[in-house]
Design a protein that fits this description.
The protein contains eight helices and twelve strands. It is α/β, with parallel strands linked by helices. Helix 1 packs across helix 5. It starts with a strand and ends in a 9-residue tail after the last strand.
Length: 234
């Protein structure tokens, strides 16, 4: 998962980064709200951690801007020194999903992050996952379409699984590269486009089959459901 931290205190940034990376996630830090909001136009994150007091705008304004521009899907956690009942009510009312007071306690932060991610991304569970006519077995690394196995290379499977686990979400190119290829790989845009095109063809991602892949110019891709329902595959 990609998690963005918005806090102008370098010590807090590093503390939260350590906790996030210990959980196996990627961390991106920002010191002002404008920089984060600017990056959100072309990047996607799975969760945001937001401080209240920032050099350019307060945390609630940032959260409200995120909700207006991105929507309600991304979980947001306030981590701030403010902790009165009025503060908590205001923080949650502006669009945050959870509220935690400083000083940061690693155990509590870890628990809250895990809880938010579980609620927001239940499809990231392992085992058998079904999306209409598409059935994934994450243990065996296999995929069936209408009960028929599809031969797939490792990265093709990883790409397909990642996109189906995030149906409806706009996924930036960097997000896809990191989750499918890993952070150390420099993947040319043409290679990513080729993989997505091959996946679209191999899995027959069409409205008639329930899912389509749409390219969003300058940002990335979105796998969307066409709304069709199919009988359960036995």
């Amino acid at each position: 998962m990609r998690i963005a931290v918005l806090d102008d205190d370098p010590l807090v940034q590093e503390l939260e980064r350590a906790a996030i990376e210990q959980l196996g996630h990627s961390c991106y830090t920002y010191s002002d709200g404008v920089s984060l909001l600017k990056d959100l136009r072309r990047q996607t994150f799975d969760l945001l951690i937001v401080d209240w007091h920032l050099p350019d705008m307060d945390g609630p304004r940032v959260v409200e801007s995120v909700r207006k521009s991105i929507g309600s899907n991304i979980p947001i956690l306030f981590v701030t020194r403010r902790g009165t009942e009025e503060d908590v009510v205001e923080g949650l009312s502006c669009g945050a999903d959870d509220f935690m007071t400083k000083p940061v306690r690693i155990g509590e932060l870890t628990a809250r992050l895990n809880a938010l991610l579980r609620r927001a991304y239940p499809a990231t569970q392992t085992g058998n996952l079904e999306f209409g006519i598409y059935r994934f077995n994450t243990d065996k690394r296999s995929l069936e379409v209408r009960g028929v196995p599809v031969e797939m290379k490792t990265r093709e499977f990883n790409l397909a699984l990642f996109m189906f686990q995030n149906v409806g979400r706009l996924l930036s190119r960097d997000h896809v590269r990191e989750m499918v290829w890993g952070q150390l790989y420099q993947v040319p845009s043409r290679s990513l486009d080729t993989h997505v095109s091959r996946l679209r063809t191999k899995l027959e991602l069409t409205p008639e089959n329930g899912y389509v892949v749409n390219a969003v110019y300058g940002v990335g891709y979105r796998l969307e459901s066409s709304g069709l329902e199919f009988p359960e595959v036995n």
